[in-house]
Amino acid sequence: MRNEAPSPVQGVVRAVSPLDTDLRAFFAFFGAFSEAPEPLSFLAERGLAEGDLFHLLALWQARMSADRAVQKDALGLLARPTGEIPDVQVGPALPVQAPRDASTPEKASLVATSLGFVIDRPALPFVAPPENAPKLAPPPSQPRPAPQGLGETKMAFHIDKPVLPFARKPAAAPEAVPPRPLQGPAPASLGETRPAVHLYKPALPFAAKALAQTALTFQVNPRGLPFGPKPAPPSRPLGDTAPAFASAKPVLPFPMPDKPPVAAPPAPRPPPVSLAETSLALPINLSAVLPFVKPTPSVPATRLAIEAYATMCAEIWLDPPGALRIIARYGLSPEAKRAEDAAWQARFAAAPAERATWERLSIEAGARIRAGR
Residue 1: its pLDDT value, please? Predict the structure, then answer.
């Protein structure tokens, strides 16, 4: 059961031990109060009211604002889990000590604060009022007095109709129109047809004219129009259709030759110089046929294959002092070595793919030589 709190008296507070002196105990109690499903029942079971909790909150807030050490301890307790709920002992009501000087208020003690009364009624917004509490009706409005002078106006009538001028009036009920029969008169004979629906009025908004009024009063000659068709020429007898004379000129604009021209035989092509060149039956002059074809640049011939040249270069890179001995083993002299290098550089410039192949073969040859040492 909820303990009866003392009646609110101005200028007194209650001492709550150890919540008003121990910061750790207050934080443990306040954490349990915040997590309780029924916070007010939690306070009532320990003989406390909401006014006591507000008094403790204001008390510790004032201490933390005045003392940096208390504020530091409070921050440290917030970072750690709260302990067990302490046993609360509610003391008697104590008077509040008034400050000596109004300009310089004295620091509040541990048991007395500036709270002048004890709140023993529910103050939280989520507390439901009692079921039997009567509902407060709003006070009745006082009637407006009559105007005393000409400067004051009053309404001359009560508004009991729609204010808007365009308020829709109730529509009148439509008049009942008897349905007309959809079936027309029966045909006079079997050979005569009749429409399925009888039309009492014409469908078009204008009446049909008589046949005598629809005919043209004059005949339109199509030759008078500029865009009309041209009249057909008069027919001629069969004897007038043949040409009057025979054509003595050839039909084509150029005379037919008596003998067709004979083409001169092509000049024989010289035999191929090397085996790689193929022999054609007819020589083709590319410069005459394709004016944009450029002649293929001549690539100097090399004495060594690309594998042998790459291996020789790798040996020279690994043993520069023995370069003369290495090129002599490949059958080259210093002059022939310089000519071979120039020929391979020309080939590499014409075909970049051969340069990539030579670099790959040189790296592989160098790896084999180093592995064999």
Answer: 41
Query: Cβ(52)–Cβ(15) under 8 Å?
Result: no
Whole-number percent of the chain with pLDDT over 70: 45
pLDDT digits 0-9 by tens, 192-203:
666 555 555 555
The answer to whether residue 190 is domain-embedded is no
Tell me 80's DSSP state. Answer: S
- Other CB atoms closer than 10 Å to residue 25's CB: what's the count? 21
Residue 200 lies in a domain: no
Domain count for the chain: 2
pLDDT computed for residue 26 by the predictor: 82
Residue 156 lies in a domain: no
Of 308, 355, 314, the C-alpha closest to 331 is 308
Nearest to 369 by CA among 307, 310, 311, 309: 311
Q: Would you say 82 and 27 are in contact if contact means Cβ atoms under 8 Å apart? A: yes
DSSP helix, strand, coil percent of the chain (3-state; round to 5) = 35, 5, 65
Of the residues 125, 147, 168, the one at which a domain ends: 125
- For residue 82, give its domain range: 1-125
- What is the residue whose two structure tokens read 């006014």? 51
User: pTM of the prediction?
Assistant: 0.26
